Amino acid sequence: xxxxxxxxxxxxxxxxxxxxxxxxxxxxxxxxxxxxxxxxxxxxxxxxxxxxxxxxxxxxxxxxxxxxxxxxxxxxxxxxxxxxxxxxxxxxxxxxxxxxxxxxxxxxxxxxxxxxxxxxxxxxxxxxxxxxxxxxxxxxxxxxxxxxxxxxxxxxxxxxxxxxxxxxxxxxxxxxxxxxxxxxxxxxxxxxxxxxxxxxxxxxxxxxxxxxxxxxxxxxxxxxxxxxxxxxxxxxxxxxxxxxxxxxxxxxxxxxxxxxxxxxxxxxxxxxxxxxxxxxxxxxxxxxxxxxxxxxxxxxxxxxxxxxxxxxxxxxxxxxxxxxxxxxxxxxxxxxxxxxxxxxxxxxxxxxxxxxxxxxxxxxxxxxxxxxxxxxxxxxxxxxxxxxxxxxxxxxxxxxxxxxxxxxxxxxxxxxxxxxxxxxxxxxxxxxxxxxxxxxxxxxxxxxxxxxxxxxxxxxxxxxxxxxxxxxxxxxxxxxxxxxxxxxxxxxxxxxxxxxxxxxxxxxxxxxxxxxxxxxxxxxxxxxxxxxxxxxxxxxxxxxxxxxxxxxxxxxxxxxxxxxxxxxxxxxxxxxxxxxxxxxxxxxxxxxxxxxxxxxxxxxxxxxxx
Length: 610
Fold this sequence. Notes:
Layout: H1 3-13, H2 16-38, H3 40-48, H4 64-69, H5 71-86, H6 88-138, H7 141-146, H8 149-167, H9 170-191, H10 193-213, H11 217-240, H12 242-247, H13 251-305, H14 310-351, E1 372-380, E2 388-396, E3 400-405, H15 411-418, E4 426-431, E5 434-435, H16 441-446, E6 448-451, H17 462-466, H18 475-484, H19 488-491, H20 511-525, E7 529-533, H21 541-555, E8 559-563, H22 567-570, E9 575-580, E10 583-588, H23 590-596, H24 599-606
Parallel strand pairs: 3-8, 3-9, 6-7, 7-8
Antiparallel strand pairs: 1-2, 1-4, 4-5, 9-10
Helix pairs in contact: 1-14, 2-6, 2-9, 2-14, 3-6, 3-14, 5-6, 6-8, 8-11, 8-14, 9-10, 9-14, 10-13, 11-13, 11-14, 13-14, 18-20, 20-21
Protein backbone atom coordinates (compact mmCIF):
# COMPACT_ATOMS: atom_id res chain seq x y z
CA UNK A 1 0.00 0.00 0.00
CA UNK A 2 1.33 3.45 -0.97
CA UNK A 3 2.64 5.52 1.98
CA UNK A 4 0.53 8.56 1.00
CA UNK A 5 -2.57 6.37 0.92
CA UNK A 6 -1.86 5.30 4.51
CA UNK A 7 -1.44 8.95 5.55
CA UNK A 8 -4.90 9.81 4.19
CA UNK A 9 -6.63 7.05 6.18
CA UNK A 10 -6.70 9.04 9.48
CA UNK A 11 -8.50 11.88 7.65
CA UNK A 12 -11.12 9.45 6.32
CA UNK A 13 -11.61 7.73 9.73
CA UNK A 14 -13.62 10.72 10.93
CA UNK A 15 -16.16 9.86 8.22
CA UNK A 16 -16.21 6.09 8.77
CA UNK A 17 -20.05 6.07 8.90
CA UNK A 18 -20.11 7.55 5.37
CA UNK A 19 -17.36 5.18 4.15
CA UNK A 20 -19.40 2.19 5.43
CA UNK A 21 -22.54 3.70 3.84
CA UNK A 22 -20.77 4.11 0.52
CA UNK A 23 -19.43 0.54 0.55
CA UNK A 24 -22.84 -0.93 1.59
CA UNK A 25 -24.76 0.88 -1.15
CA UNK A 26 -22.07 0.02 -3.71
CA UNK A 27 -22.56 -3.67 -2.83
CA UNK A 28 -26.32 -3.25 -3.38
CA UNK A 29 -25.61 -1.37 -6.64
CA UNK A 30 -23.49 -4.26 -7.96
CA UNK A 31 -26.08 -6.84 -6.81
CA UNK A 32 -29.12 -5.08 -8.32
CA UNK A 33 -27.16 -4.36 -11.53
CA UNK A 34 -26.53 -8.08 -12.01
CA UNK A 35 -30.10 -9.05 -11.02
CA UNK A 36 -31.45 -6.53 -13.54
CA UNK A 37 -29.56 -8.29 -16.31
CA UNK A 38 -30.60 -11.73 -15.01
CA UNK A 39 -34.29 -10.72 -14.97
CA UNK A 40 -34.08 -9.91 -18.69
CA UNK A 41 -33.81 -13.65 -19.30
CA UNK A 42 -37.45 -14.51 -18.36
CA UNK A 43 -38.62 -11.51 -20.45
CA UNK A 44 -36.88 -13.03 -23.44
CA UNK A 45 -38.18 -16.48 -22.50
CA UNK A 46 -41.78 -15.18 -22.58
CA UNK A 47 -41.18 -13.23 -25.79
CA UNK A 48 -39.72 -16.23 -27.62
CA UNK A 49 -42.28 -18.52 -25.92
CA UNK A 50 -39.45 -20.99 -25.25
CA UNK A 51 -41.28 -22.78 -22.42
CA UNK A 52 -44.54 -23.61 -24.29
CA UNK A 53 -43.60 -27.25 -24.93
CA UNK A 54 -42.06 -27.80 -21.49
CA UNK A 55 -43.72 -28.79 -18.29
CA UNK A 56 -41.98 -26.61 -15.73
CA UNK A 57 -41.99 -27.88 -12.15
CA UNK A 58 -41.03 -26.06 -8.97
CA UNK A 59 -37.58 -27.27 -7.84
CA UNK A 60 -37.53 -28.99 -4.46
CA UNK A 61 -36.13 -26.72 -1.72
CA UNK A 62 -33.01 -28.26 -0.24
CA UNK A 63 -31.22 -25.40 1.53
CA UNK A 64 -30.24 -21.85 0.50
CA UNK A 65 -27.15 -22.94 -1.50
CA UNK A 66 -29.19 -25.38 -3.54
CA UNK A 67 -31.94 -22.78 -4.09
CA UNK A 68 -29.38 -20.21 -5.36
CA UNK A 69 -27.89 -22.72 -7.78
CA UNK A 70 -31.40 -23.43 -9.18
CA UNK A 71 -32.33 -19.73 -9.59
CA UNK A 72 -33.06 -20.17 -13.33
CA UNK A 73 -35.60 -22.96 -12.61
CA UNK A 74 -37.36 -20.91 -9.90
CA UNK A 75 -37.74 -17.90 -12.23
CA UNK A 76 -38.88 -20.13 -15.12
CA UNK A 77 -41.49 -21.85 -12.91
CA UNK A 78 -43.11 -18.66 -11.58
CA UNK A 79 -43.08 -16.88 -14.96
CA UNK A 80 -44.63 -19.98 -16.59
CA UNK A 81 -47.30 -20.26 -13.86
CA UNK A 82 -48.19 -16.58 -14.12
CA UNK A 83 -48.36 -16.68 -17.94
CA UNK A 84 -50.56 -19.82 -17.89
CA UNK A 85 -52.91 -18.44 -15.23
CA UNK A 86 -53.31 -14.84 -16.40
CA UNK A 87 -52.20 -14.85 -20.03
CA UNK A 88 -48.90 -14.33 -21.83
CA UNK A 89 -49.14 -10.51 -21.88
CA UNK A 90 -49.40 -10.46 -18.06
CA UNK A 91 -46.39 -12.73 -17.84
CA UNK A 92 -44.52 -10.24 -20.02
CA UNK A 93 -45.65 -7.33 -17.78
CA UNK A 94 -44.52 -9.20 -14.65
CA UNK A 95 -41.06 -9.91 -16.03
CA UNK A 96 -40.60 -6.36 -17.40
CA UNK A 97 -41.78 -5.04 -13.99
CA UNK A 98 -39.11 -7.13 -12.25
CA UNK A 99 -36.43 -5.63 -14.53
CA UNK A 100 -37.67 -2.06 -13.90
CA UNK A 101 -37.78 -2.52 -10.10
CA UNK A 102 -34.26 -3.96 -9.94
CA UNK A 103 -32.83 -1.18 -12.13
CA UNK A 104 -34.66 1.41 -9.98
CA UNK A 105 -33.11 -0.13 -6.85
CA UNK A 106 -29.70 -0.23 -8.60
CA UNK A 107 -29.81 3.50 -9.41
CA UNK A 108 -31.20 4.42 -5.99
CA UNK A 109 -28.28 2.53 -4.40
CA UNK A 110 -25.88 4.35 -6.71
CA UNK A 111 -27.33 7.74 -5.67
CA UNK A 112 -27.06 6.94 -1.95
CA UNK A 113 -23.50 5.58 -2.40
CA UNK A 114 -22.48 8.79 -4.18
CA UNK A 115 -24.09 10.93 -1.45
CA UNK A 116 -21.98 9.19 1.18
CA UNK A 117 -18.87 9.49 -1.01
CA UNK A 118 -19.50 13.23 -1.48
CA UNK A 119 -19.59 13.70 2.30
CA UNK A 120 -16.29 11.82 2.68
CA UNK A 121 -14.60 13.73 -0.17
CA UNK A 122 -15.75 17.21 0.86
CA UNK A 123 -15.13 16.47 4.55
CA UNK A 124 -11.57 15.28 3.94
CA UNK A 125 -10.98 18.25 1.59
CA UNK A 126 -12.11 20.65 4.33
CA UNK A 127 -9.99 18.93 7.00
CA UNK A 128 -6.90 18.77 4.76
CA UNK A 129 -7.19 22.48 3.88
CA UNK A 130 -7.77 23.38 7.53
CA UNK A 131 -4.68 21.43 8.62
CA UNK A 132 -2.62 22.73 5.72
CA UNK A 133 -3.47 26.41 6.35
CA UNK A 134 -2.74 25.95 10.04
CA UNK A 135 0.62 24.44 9.04
CA UNK A 136 1.63 27.09 6.50
CA UNK A 137 0.92 29.98 8.88
CA UNK A 138 2.76 28.22 11.73
CA UNK A 139 5.92 27.54 9.68
CA UNK A 140 8.78 29.98 10.38
CA UNK A 141 9.46 32.98 8.15
CA UNK A 142 12.69 31.29 7.02
CA UNK A 143 10.67 28.56 5.22
CA UNK A 144 9.19 31.14 2.85
CA UNK A 145 12.51 32.78 2.10
CA UNK A 146 13.46 29.52 0.37
CA UNK A 147 10.10 28.45 -1.11
CA UNK A 148 7.95 30.08 -3.76
CA UNK A 149 4.68 31.28 -2.26
CA UNK A 150 2.92 30.34 -5.50
CA UNK A 151 4.01 26.72 -5.13
CA UNK A 152 2.65 26.60 -1.57
CA UNK A 153 -0.62 28.13 -2.88
CA UNK A 154 -0.80 25.52 -5.65
CA UNK A 155 -0.43 22.72 -3.09
CA UNK A 156 -3.05 24.30 -0.83
CA UNK A 157 -5.61 24.79 -3.61
CA UNK A 158 -4.86 22.64 -6.68
CA UNK A 159 -3.19 19.58 -5.19
CA UNK A 160 -5.65 19.21 -2.31
CA UNK A 161 -8.45 19.39 -4.90
CA UNK A 162 -6.74 16.70 -6.97
CA UNK A 163 -6.59 14.47 -3.88
CA UNK A 164 -10.32 15.01 -3.37
CA UNK A 165 -11.33 14.51 -7.01
CA UNK A 166 -9.26 11.46 -7.86
CA UNK A 167 -7.99 9.80 -4.73
CA UNK A 168 -11.36 8.74 -3.33
CA UNK A 169 -12.12 6.91 -6.56
CA UNK A 170 -10.27 4.16 -4.72
CA UNK A 171 -13.57 3.37 -2.96
CA UNK A 172 -15.13 2.74 -6.38
CA UNK A 173 -11.99 0.87 -7.40
CA UNK A 174 -12.06 -1.66 -4.58
CA UNK A 175 -15.81 -2.14 -4.04
CA UNK A 176 -18.32 -0.99 -6.65
CA UNK A 177 -16.74 -2.03 -9.94
CA UNK A 178 -15.02 -5.27 -8.81
CA UNK A 179 -18.27 -6.50 -7.19
CA UNK A 180 -20.23 -5.69 -10.36
CA UNK A 181 -17.72 -7.82 -12.28
CA UNK A 182 -17.82 -10.59 -9.62
CA UNK A 183 -21.63 -10.83 -9.44
CA UNK A 184 -21.85 -10.77 -13.25
CA UNK A 185 -19.26 -13.55 -13.51
CA UNK A 186 -21.16 -15.72 -11.00
CA UNK A 187 -24.36 -15.30 -13.04
CA UNK A 188 -22.45 -16.00 -16.26
CA UNK A 189 -20.87 -19.19 -14.87
CA UNK A 190 -24.32 -20.43 -13.84
CA UNK A 191 -25.57 -19.85 -17.40
CA UNK A 192 -22.55 -21.29 -19.25
CA UNK A 193 -19.18 -22.09 -17.75
CA UNK A 194 -17.68 -22.79 -21.19
CA UNK A 195 -18.33 -19.25 -22.42
CA UNK A 196 -17.02 -17.76 -19.17
CA UNK A 197 -13.56 -19.24 -19.74
CA UNK A 198 -13.09 -16.65 -22.50
CA UNK A 199 -13.90 -13.83 -20.11
CA UNK A 200 -11.38 -15.12 -17.53
CA UNK A 201 -8.72 -15.03 -20.23
CA UNK A 202 -9.64 -11.43 -21.18
CA UNK A 203 -9.51 -9.84 -17.68
CA UNK A 204 -5.78 -10.45 -16.84
CA UNK A 205 -4.68 -9.49 -20.39
CA UNK A 206 -6.66 -6.24 -20.16
CA UNK A 207 -5.26 -5.51 -16.68
CA UNK A 208 -1.69 -6.08 -17.91
CA UNK A 209 -2.11 -3.73 -20.91
CA UNK A 210 -3.68 -0.97 -18.77
CA UNK A 211 -0.98 -1.18 -16.09
CA UNK A 212 1.71 -0.90 -18.80
CA UNK A 213 0.11 2.28 -20.18
CA UNK A 214 -0.19 3.90 -16.74
CA UNK A 215 3.28 3.05 -15.43
CA UNK A 216 4.88 6.49 -15.86
CA UNK A 217 1.70 8.47 -15.13
CA UNK A 218 2.51 9.30 -11.49
CA UNK A 219 5.87 10.94 -12.24
CA UNK A 220 4.39 13.00 -15.09
CA UNK A 221 1.51 14.11 -12.83
CA UNK A 222 4.00 15.16 -10.16
CA UNK A 223 5.97 17.25 -12.67
CA UNK A 224 2.76 18.87 -13.95
CA UNK A 225 1.74 19.82 -10.40
CA UNK A 226 5.19 21.35 -9.74
CA UNK A 227 4.91 23.36 -12.96
CA UNK A 228 1.46 24.52 -11.90
CA UNK A 229 2.97 25.83 -8.65
CA UNK A 230 5.64 27.71 -10.61
CA UNK A 231 2.92 29.18 -12.86
CA UNK A 232 0.95 30.53 -9.89
CA UNK A 233 4.21 32.00 -8.50
CA UNK A 234 4.79 33.95 -11.73
CA UNK A 235 1.24 35.37 -11.64
CA UNK A 236 1.50 36.21 -7.92
CA UNK A 237 4.90 37.93 -8.32
CA UNK A 238 3.85 39.80 -11.48
CA UNK A 239 0.72 41.19 -9.85
CA UNK A 240 2.57 41.98 -6.59
CA UNK A 241 5.22 43.96 -8.45
CA UNK A 242 3.02 45.37 -11.23
CA UNK A 243 4.29 48.96 -10.82
CA UNK A 244 7.91 47.80 -11.26
CA UNK A 245 6.96 45.55 -14.21
CA UNK A 246 5.27 48.46 -15.98
CA UNK A 247 7.81 51.15 -15.11
CA UNK A 248 10.68 49.04 -16.49
CA UNK A 249 8.66 47.98 -19.56
CA UNK A 250 9.27 44.41 -18.44
CA UNK A 251 5.87 43.09 -19.55
CA UNK A 252 7.48 41.08 -22.37
CA UNK A 253 10.02 39.45 -20.03
CA UNK A 254 7.31 38.29 -17.62
CA UNK A 255 5.02 37.28 -20.49
CA UNK A 256 7.86 35.13 -21.93
CA UNK A 257 8.50 33.52 -18.50
CA UNK A 258 4.77 32.83 -18.15
CA UNK A 259 4.42 31.49 -21.71
CA UNK A 260 7.43 29.17 -21.28
CA UNK A 261 5.79 27.75 -18.16
CA UNK A 262 2.36 27.24 -19.74
CA UNK A 263 3.99 25.57 -22.75
CA UNK A 264 5.81 23.10 -20.46
CA UNK A 265 2.51 22.51 -18.65
CA UNK A 266 0.80 22.05 -22.05
CA UNK A 267 3.31 19.35 -23.09
CA UNK A 268 2.99 17.52 -19.75
CA UNK A 269 -0.82 17.71 -19.80
CA UNK A 270 -0.90 16.37 -23.37
CA UNK A 271 1.36 13.44 -22.32
CA UNK A 272 -0.84 12.69 -19.28
CA UNK A 273 -4.03 13.08 -21.34
CA UNK A 274 -2.72 10.72 -24.03
CA UNK A 275 -2.38 7.93 -21.48
CA UNK A 276 -5.60 8.77 -19.64
CA UNK A 277 -7.55 8.92 -22.90
CA UNK A 278 -6.12 5.60 -24.09
CA UNK A 279 -7.39 3.70 -21.03
CA UNK A 280 -11.10 3.78 -21.80
CA UNK A 281 -11.08 2.96 -25.57
CA UNK A 282 -8.41 0.30 -25.06
CA UNK A 283 -10.40 -1.53 -22.38
CA UNK A 284 -13.65 -1.14 -24.38
CA UNK A 285 -12.09 -2.48 -27.60
CA UNK A 286 -10.64 -5.48 -25.79
CA UNK A 287 -14.06 -6.10 -24.25
CA UNK A 288 -15.83 -5.92 -27.60
CA UNK A 289 -13.17 -8.25 -29.04
CA UNK A 290 -14.06 -10.82 -26.39
CA UNK A 291 -17.80 -10.31 -27.01
CA UNK A 292 -17.13 -10.92 -30.73
CA UNK A 293 -15.46 -14.24 -29.85
CA UNK A 294 -18.38 -15.06 -27.50
CA UNK A 295 -20.91 -14.36 -30.27
CA UNK A 296 -19.13 -16.79 -32.61
CA UNK A 297 -18.63 -19.53 -30.01
CA UNK A 298 -21.95 -18.99 -28.20
CA UNK A 299 -23.85 -18.76 -31.49
CA UNK A 300 -22.45 -22.19 -32.32
CA UNK A 301 -23.74 -23.57 -28.96
CA UNK A 302 -27.22 -22.19 -29.68
CA UNK A 303 -27.57 -22.86 -33.41
CA UNK A 304 -25.44 -25.97 -33.98
CA UNK A 305 -25.19 -27.89 -30.71
CA UNK A 306 -28.50 -26.66 -29.25
CA UNK A 307 -26.99 -26.87 -25.74
CA UNK A 308 -27.86 -23.23 -24.92
CA UNK A 309 -31.22 -21.44 -25.19
CA UNK A 310 -31.36 -18.24 -27.23
CA UNK A 311 -32.75 -16.21 -24.28
CA UNK A 312 -29.94 -17.46 -22.03
CA UNK A 313 -27.35 -16.57 -24.66
CA UNK A 314 -28.66 -13.01 -25.13
CA UNK A 315 -28.73 -12.53 -21.32
CA UNK A 316 -25.19 -13.90 -21.17
CA UNK A 317 -24.00 -11.36 -23.76
CA UNK A 318 -25.74 -8.61 -21.72
CA UNK A 319 -23.89 -9.75 -18.58
CA UNK A 320 -20.58 -9.88 -20.49
CA UNK A 321 -21.17 -6.32 -21.67
CA UNK A 322 -22.11 -5.45 -18.08
CA UNK A 323 -18.48 -6.25 -17.19
CA UNK A 324 -17.12 -3.78 -19.76
CA UNK A 325 -18.39 -0.60 -18.03
CA UNK A 326 -16.82 -1.38 -14.64
CA UNK A 327 -13.63 -2.60 -16.38
CA UNK A 328 -13.39 0.79 -18.13
CA UNK A 329 -14.18 2.57 -14.84
CA UNK A 330 -11.43 0.61 -13.05
CA UNK A 331 -8.84 1.54 -15.69
CA UNK A 332 -9.84 5.24 -15.55
CA UNK A 333 -9.97 5.22 -11.74
CA UNK A 334 -6.55 3.57 -11.46
CA UNK A 335 -5.08 6.40 -13.56
CA UNK A 336 -6.90 9.02 -11.50
CA UNK A 337 -5.61 7.43 -8.28
CA UNK A 338 -2.04 7.76 -9.66
CA UNK A 339 -2.70 11.51 -10.18
CA UNK A 340 -4.13 11.65 -6.66
CA UNK A 341 -1.06 9.92 -5.20
CA UNK A 342 1.27 12.42 -6.88
CA UNK A 343 -0.83 15.30 -5.49
CA UNK A 344 -1.03 13.72 -2.02
CA UNK A 345 2.76 13.43 -2.01
CA UNK A 346 3.07 17.22 -2.53
CA UNK A 347 0.42 17.96 0.12
CA UNK A 348 2.11 15.77 2.74
CA UNK A 349 5.51 17.29 1.88
CA UNK A 350 4.20 20.55 3.38
CA UNK A 351 2.27 18.92 6.23
CA UNK A 352 5.37 17.00 7.30
CA UNK A 353 7.86 19.90 7.18
CA UNK A 354 9.47 20.12 10.58
CA UNK A 355 8.64 23.43 12.25
CA UNK A 356 11.94 24.50 13.79
CA UNK A 357 10.39 27.32 15.82
CA UNK A 358 7.88 25.84 18.24
CA UNK A 359 6.95 25.92 21.91
CA UNK A 360 9.04 23.74 24.22
CA UNK A 361 7.15 21.25 26.40
CA UNK A 362 6.04 23.12 29.55
CA UNK A 363 6.99 26.49 28.01
CA UNK A 364 6.47 29.49 30.29
CA UNK A 365 3.55 31.85 29.70
CA UNK A 366 5.11 35.24 30.38
CA UNK A 367 2.60 38.11 30.43
CA UNK A 368 4.67 40.81 32.16
CA UNK A 369 7.91 42.66 31.48
CA UNK A 370 9.64 44.05 34.56
CA UNK A 371 13.42 44.39 34.12
CA UNK A 372 15.33 44.20 30.86
CA UNK A 373 15.99 42.52 27.51
CA UNK A 374 19.44 40.90 27.30
CA UNK A 375 21.05 39.87 24.02
CA UNK A 376 24.12 37.80 24.92
CA UNK A 377 26.95 36.72 22.59
CA UNK A 378 24.82 36.22 19.49
CA UNK A 379 26.26 34.67 16.35
CA UNK A 380 23.69 34.41 13.58
CA UNK A 381 23.61 34.07 9.79
CA UNK A 382 20.88 33.43 7.21
CA UNK A 383 23.30 31.48 5.01
CA UNK A 384 26.89 30.50 5.73
CA UNK A 385 28.29 33.92 6.61
CA UNK A 386 27.29 35.41 9.96
CA UNK A 387 25.21 38.59 9.91
CA UNK A 388 25.72 39.13 13.66
CA UNK A 389 29.07 38.37 15.31
CA UNK A 390 29.48 38.07 19.10
CA UNK A 391 26.71 40.62 19.49
CA UNK A 392 25.67 41.60 23.04
CA UNK A 393 23.25 44.34 24.11
CA UNK A 394 21.17 45.18 27.17
CA UNK A 395 17.90 47.10 26.90
CA UNK A 396 16.53 48.17 30.33
CA UNK A 397 12.77 48.48 30.83
CA UNK A 398 11.37 51.88 29.86
CA UNK A 399 14.38 52.85 27.76
CA UNK A 400 14.58 53.57 24.03
CA UNK A 401 17.50 51.97 22.23
CA UNK A 402 18.18 52.87 18.58
CA UNK A 403 20.10 50.69 16.16
CA UNK A 404 21.75 52.50 13.27
CA UNK A 405 24.17 51.54 10.55
CA UNK A 406 24.48 50.86 6.86
CA UNK A 407 22.23 48.45 5.05
CA UNK A 408 23.29 44.85 5.77
CA UNK A 409 24.82 45.68 9.15
CA UNK A 410 22.33 43.36 10.92
CA UNK A 411 19.83 45.88 12.39
CA UNK A 412 16.63 44.19 11.16
CA UNK A 413 18.07 40.79 12.14
CA UNK A 414 17.83 41.90 15.80
CA UNK A 415 14.06 42.46 15.31
CA UNK A 416 13.75 39.02 13.65
CA UNK A 417 15.50 37.33 16.58
CA UNK A 418 13.59 39.20 19.32
CA UNK A 419 10.24 38.15 17.82
CA UNK A 420 11.55 34.59 17.12
CA UNK A 421 10.88 34.82 13.40
CA UNK A 422 14.31 33.18 13.37
CA UNK A 423 16.08 31.38 16.22
CA UNK A 424 19.59 32.28 17.31
CA UNK A 425 22.30 29.79 16.37
CA UNK A 426 24.70 30.74 19.16
CA UNK A 427 24.08 32.83 22.25
CA UNK A 428 20.79 33.72 23.97
CA UNK A 429 18.07 36.35 23.96
CA UNK A 430 16.50 36.84 27.40
CA UNK A 431 13.58 38.83 28.78
CA UNK A 432 13.78 39.37 32.56
CA UNK A 433 16.48 36.68 32.66
CA UNK A 434 14.30 34.07 30.90
CA UNK A 435 15.48 32.68 27.56
CA UNK A 436 12.81 33.54 24.96
CA UNK A 437 13.03 29.91 23.72
CA UNK A 438 11.62 28.85 27.12
CA UNK A 439 8.52 31.06 26.68
CA UNK A 440 5.46 30.25 24.60
CA UNK A 441 5.57 31.96 21.21
CA UNK A 442 2.13 33.46 21.85
CA UNK A 443 3.09 35.10 25.16
CA UNK A 444 6.43 36.34 23.76
CA UNK A 445 4.74 38.01 20.80
CA UNK A 446 1.98 39.39 23.03
CA UNK A 447 4.70 41.40 24.80
CA UNK A 448 5.76 43.02 21.53
CA UNK A 449 4.40 45.42 18.97
CA UNK A 450 6.03 45.48 15.55
CA UNK A 451 5.94 48.24 12.94
CA UNK A 452 7.92 47.26 9.85
CA UNK A 453 9.37 49.28 7.00
CA UNK A 454 6.87 47.66 4.62
CA UNK A 455 3.45 48.55 5.95
CA UNK A 456 1.71 45.19 5.62
CA UNK A 457 -2.06 45.67 5.38
CA UNK A 458 -4.85 43.34 4.27
CA UNK A 459 -7.74 43.67 1.84
CA UNK A 460 -10.26 44.53 4.55
CA UNK A 461 -11.63 47.53 6.42
CA UNK A 462 -9.42 49.96 8.35
CA UNK A 463 -11.15 48.77 11.52
CA UNK A 464 -10.30 45.09 10.95
CA UNK A 465 -6.71 45.90 9.97
CA UNK A 466 -6.09 47.87 13.16
CA UNK A 467 -7.70 45.48 15.63
CA UNK A 468 -5.54 42.48 14.62
CA UNK A 469 -3.75 42.56 17.96
CA UNK A 470 -6.90 43.25 19.99
CA UNK A 471 -9.94 41.68 18.38
CA UNK A 472 -12.40 42.90 21.02
CA UNK A 473 -11.39 46.58 20.65
CA UNK A 474 -14.25 49.09 20.58
CA UNK A 475 -14.64 51.71 17.84
CA UNK A 476 -13.64 54.38 20.39
CA UNK A 477 -10.36 52.56 21.16
CA UNK A 478 -9.64 52.20 17.44
CA UNK A 479 -10.26 55.91 16.83
CA UNK A 480 -8.04 56.81 19.83
CA UNK A 481 -5.22 54.68 18.36
CA UNK A 482 -5.69 56.35 14.96
CA UNK A 483 -5.40 59.76 16.61
CA UNK A 484 -2.15 58.79 18.37
CA UNK A 485 -0.74 57.65 15.01
CA UNK A 486 -1.92 60.89 13.39
CA UNK A 487 -4.06 58.80 11.01
CA UNK A 488 -7.56 59.88 12.06
CA UNK A 489 -7.24 63.14 10.14
CA UNK A 490 -7.49 61.26 6.80
CA UNK A 491 -9.62 58.31 8.03
CA UNK A 492 -12.47 60.57 9.17
CA UNK A 493 -12.70 62.04 5.64
CA UNK A 494 -13.06 58.62 3.97
CA UNK A 495 -16.58 57.69 2.72
CA UNK A 496 -17.17 55.03 5.41
CA UNK A 497 -14.64 56.15 8.02
CA UNK A 498 -13.07 53.17 9.83
CA UNK A 499 -15.38 50.81 7.90
CA UNK A 500 -13.71 51.77 4.59
CA UNK A 501 -12.10 48.90 2.67
CA UNK A 502 -8.51 49.83 1.79
CA UNK A 503 -8.06 47.41 -1.16
CA UNK A 504 -5.43 44.76 -1.80
CA UNK A 505 -2.38 45.46 0.43
CA UNK A 506 -3.93 48.86 1.20
CA UNK A 507 -3.57 49.88 -2.45
CA UNK A 508 -6.17 52.68 -2.14
CA UNK A 509 -3.93 54.59 0.31
CA UNK A 510 -0.64 56.47 0.02
CA UNK A 511 2.56 55.06 1.50
CA UNK A 512 2.45 57.50 4.40
CA UNK A 513 -1.20 56.72 5.16
CA UNK A 514 -0.49 52.96 5.15
CA UNK A 515 2.43 53.40 7.53
CA UNK A 516 0.33 55.46 9.94
CA UNK A 517 -2.29 52.69 10.00
CA UNK A 518 0.49 50.18 10.82
CA UNK A 519 1.56 52.41 13.71
CA UNK A 520 -2.07 52.71 14.91
CA UNK A 521 -2.29 48.90 14.90
CA UNK A 522 0.75 48.69 17.22
CA UNK A 523 -0.63 51.50 19.41
CA UNK A 524 -3.94 49.67 19.88
CA UNK A 525 -2.18 46.44 20.87
CA UNK A 526 -0.42 48.48 23.59
CA UNK A 527 2.47 46.06 24.29
CA UNK A 528 5.21 46.78 26.84
CA UNK A 529 7.95 46.34 24.18
CA UNK A 530 7.78 48.19 20.86
CA UNK A 531 9.95 47.32 17.86
CA UNK A 532 10.04 49.98 15.14
CA UNK A 533 11.84 48.66 12.06
CA UNK A 534 12.33 51.74 9.85
CA UNK A 535 8.84 52.79 11.01
CA UNK A 536 8.89 56.30 9.55
CA UNK A 537 10.87 55.63 6.38
CA UNK A 538 7.76 55.75 4.15
CA UNK A 539 6.51 59.09 5.50
CA UNK A 540 6.92 62.50 3.96
CA UNK A 541 8.63 65.16 6.09
CA UNK A 542 5.39 66.76 7.30
CA UNK A 543 3.73 63.44 8.23
CA UNK A 544 6.94 62.31 9.87
CA UNK A 545 6.90 65.25 12.25
CA UNK A 546 3.37 64.44 13.40
CA UNK A 547 4.08 60.72 13.67
CA UNK A 548 7.37 61.34 15.46
CA UNK A 549 5.51 63.19 18.22
CA UNK A 550 2.97 60.35 18.33
CA UNK A 551 5.75 57.76 18.54
CA UNK A 552 7.48 59.68 21.32
CA UNK A 553 4.20 59.81 23.25
CA UNK A 554 3.70 56.12 22.66
CA UNK A 555 7.27 55.24 23.69
CA UNK A 556 7.06 57.02 27.06
CA UNK A 557 7.32 54.48 29.89
CA UNK A 558 7.70 51.79 27.27
CA UNK A 559 10.72 49.79 26.15
CA UNK A 560 11.46 50.54 22.51
CA UNK A 561 13.91 49.18 19.98
CA UNK A 562 14.12 51.61 17.08
CA UNK A 563 15.81 50.54 13.87
CA UNK A 564 16.46 53.95 12.44
CA UNK A 565 16.59 55.44 9.01
CA UNK A 566 16.39 59.13 9.75
CA UNK A 567 18.21 61.22 12.30
CA UNK A 568 15.02 62.74 13.73
CA UNK A 569 13.77 59.29 14.77
CA UNK A 570 16.63 58.61 17.16
CA UNK A 571 17.91 61.91 18.54
CA UNK A 572 16.05 61.48 21.83
CA UNK A 573 16.91 57.78 22.27
CA UNK A 574 18.44 56.78 25.62
CA UNK A 575 21.10 54.81 23.79
CA UNK A 576 22.17 54.74 20.15
CA UNK A 577 23.98 51.60 18.99
CA UNK A 578 26.04 52.00 15.81
CA UNK A 579 26.44 48.72 13.89
CA UNK A 580 28.83 47.73 11.15
CA UNK A 581 29.00 44.25 9.55
CA UNK A 582 27.15 42.64 12.46
CA UNK A 583 29.23 44.20 15.24
CA UNK A 584 28.78 47.19 17.55
CA UNK A 585 31.34 49.87 16.70
CA UNK A 586 29.95 52.70 18.88
CA UNK A 587 27.23 53.26 21.45
CA UNK A 588 26.00 56.18 23.56
CA UNK A 589 23.59 59.12 23.38
CA UNK A 590 23.30 61.36 20.33
CA UNK A 591 25.53 64.04 21.85
CA UNK A 592 28.10 61.54 23.16
CA UNK A 593 28.44 59.92 19.74
CA UNK A 594 28.73 63.24 17.92
CA UNK A 595 31.54 64.18 20.31
CA UNK A 596 33.41 60.99 19.36
CA UNK A 597 33.52 62.25 15.77
CA UNK A 598 33.47 58.62 14.52
CA UNK A 599 31.17 56.44 12.42
CA UNK A 600 27.95 57.94 13.83
CA UNK A 601 29.16 61.46 13.21
CA UNK A 602 29.88 60.56 9.56
CA UNK A 603 26.41 59.02 9.18
CA UNK A 604 24.83 62.19 10.56
CA UNK A 605 26.90 64.34 8.22
CA UNK A 606 25.86 62.24 5.23
CA UNK A 607 22.21 61.97 6.42
CA UNK A 608 22.49 58.42 5.16
CA UNK A 609 20.72 56.33 7.76
CA UNK A 610 19.58 53.04 6.39
